[in-house]
Amino acid sequence: MVEDISEQKLSEEYREIAENRLNLALEASDIGVWDLDLIHDKAWRSLKHDQIFGYDSLQPEWGEAVCLQHVAPDDREMFRQGFKDAYQTGKLFFECQIIHKDQTWHWINVHGRVLYNESAEPMRMIGTVSDITARKMVEKEMAIAATIFNSQEGMTVTDADKLILRVNNAFTRISGYSQEEAVGKNPRILKSGLHDESFYQAMWESIDTKGVWEGEIWNRRKNGDVYPEYLVITAVKDKQDRVVNYVATFNDISVIKAAEDEIRSLAYFDPLTSLPNRRLLMDRLKQALASSARSGKEGALLFLDLDNFKALNDTLGHDTGDLLLIQVAERLQACVREGDTVARLGGDEFVVMLKDLSNQTLEAAAQTEIIANKILESLNQPYLLGSHIYNNSPSIGITLFNNQESYAENRGDDLLKQADIAMYQAKNAGRNNVRFFDMQMQKNIMERAAMEADLRHALAENQFSLFYQIQIDKNNHVIGAEALIRWEHPSNGLISPIDFIPLAEESGLILPIGKWVLESACQLLRVWQQNDLTRQLILSINVSAKQFHQPDFVDQVCSAVQNHAVPSNRLKLELTESMFLDDIEDTIEKMNSLKDIGIQFSMDDFGTGYSSLQYLKRLPIHQLKIDQSFVREIAVDGSDQAIVRTIIAMAETLNLNVIAEGVETDEQKQFLLNIGCSQYQGYLFSKPVPIEQFELLLRTR
Length: 701
Known about the structure:
By secondary structure, the chain is α+β, with helices and mostly antiparallel strands. It has 4 domains: 15-137, PAS domain (Beta-Lactamase); 150-252, Beta-Lactamase (2-Layer Sandwich); 264-442, Alpha-Beta Plaits (2-Layer Sandwich); 451-700, Alpha-Beta Barrel (TIM Barrel), CATH 3.20.20. The protein has an 8-stranded mixed beta barrel, surrounded by 5 helices. The protein has a 5-stranded antiparallel sheet with strand order 2-1-5-4-3, sandwiched between helices. Strands 7-6-10-9-8 form a 5-stranded antiparallel sheet, sandwiched between helices. Strand 14 and strand 15 (388-390) form a beta hairpin. The protein is elongated, with a radius of gyration of 39 Å.
């Protein structure tokens, strides 16, 4: 019997073609297919199924139990419950993490349907599985991005044409513009009008060439208020290096700027007359000396003291005396040129600094005398003090300065002393007089030259030593010490750093001296680690700007710590504010590198320098050190109290701790404790002492 099977063969061929197409489609879609026999827990799978679990070929055994072994432990209960629910609902769906054959973690998506027999008993489950790891990573990144976008910093995203696409809630809070009002607009809606075109040209030149710009800028809120902000604009580019977006982040720094202005005002201006105080005068004098060195022109200091001022205070009271001081300040300012400085040192003492006089000494002296006589005439005019008519006169001492290097580092102080001496000569001559200082006695020139020569031999001859001043917390527990260098001169005895460090800075000798201090400190820390009494102490050393800005400074510190095998978190570097004036980015990079290995930082003499407070939040410092000039009169001086309170409040805002130096009385310590300063250093606890005395002090506390 012959059977025609051509139709059957054709059907098998079509079926094979269909299966091949299905397999190709499944492989192209990266979807694995499975068919599970629920009775025998055996499964047929496509090759892609097993590849998703990390296998190159189909595995001989597979079922629900085998699959469960690959499921992440935290997801196994969900896996079991998913299958259990599917038996009831007929549908399976869940996402879970699995452990690949190579022990890497992946996310999978599982779909399935249950097939039942005539008795409604589940017999088979057929479904698909796909690897969704990439999708999960994108979702995670999007969630992180959403969190960042809704941070406390204002954020703006624009397109390549600088039209706003999106803003966050902080943008609305700071600027006053809602998202609906901002989207589609140019960020120029925030323009304050306080910057000229050259400012914006420089900004966009930086963005176009470097891809980023950051700095302070004044912008305007919706209500018209102008405010300062710290702004960072970054260009976002595609794979073809074309700009597709600009992202701006900014912070309202009004509070920081206000604090900066307050500290600067309290630190540099006399609260009664609003004239520059001694600190600002000395800064301007330093600049004038540098200018004189460049131009060759002379300058002058006039030291004024009001005659019989004490008698006025004693008879009419201090309020009347203050009225006189205010009017004297106004008259002095009217007597000088725009570029000159009138300062009040305190009490009834004023200083006038003249600059850019003639480059001929006699002619400069004549110019100065003309202004001095003008001041005499003005201050001799009657004053109306409340209901009192009062007459007063000044005594004026004058010293000239020029471009000669005659006074070394302390030149400004020397000039002030000279003018002060000349003023007393004017008083001795009968008051209401002007006198010039006699310039013939300059023996300190030879003394300075001799000291520099001796200083060059001091390091090689082991004449330096370190003294240690104890640091205490509010509970009188020792927390550490500051290492202070001393020079044991063979003939002049112990020399304070005040007398030789400025000279070392100027001559460049500060570099080998600073390295010696670093190595000596680490050597001591190594010894301290062997003793329970000293193991937890932190040792602070001073680092000069010239030393810090060496290209290999970070390597020097790392080598010293490693060579002496000391814990780096026991070493603290004290830096001054002036250090941050030059190349702030390099400074921050070095500090971060050292912070990463555990080194701590303290900003020394805080409040006396000139660095912008906007950088404080970027600097990885741990501590602010209140300068002793603010502590000395803190119990009685309202200005010093206000400055210290402001510093402590700022430190709390920035999560920094504070230590006060120069604490000499219980009254000072108690006042500092009351306003939030809980760490101290000063003669109240101990003067700087050699290591033997310091360790004895530790044992006896």
